[in-house]
Amino acid sequence: VLRPGVALDDAMRRKLNDAIRTALSPRFLPDDIFQVAEIPRTLSGKKQELPIKKLLLGQPIERVVNREAMANPGSLDWYVALAERRAQAAATSSVLA
Question: Whole domain around residue 6: which residue ranges?
Answer without folding.
Answer: 1-35
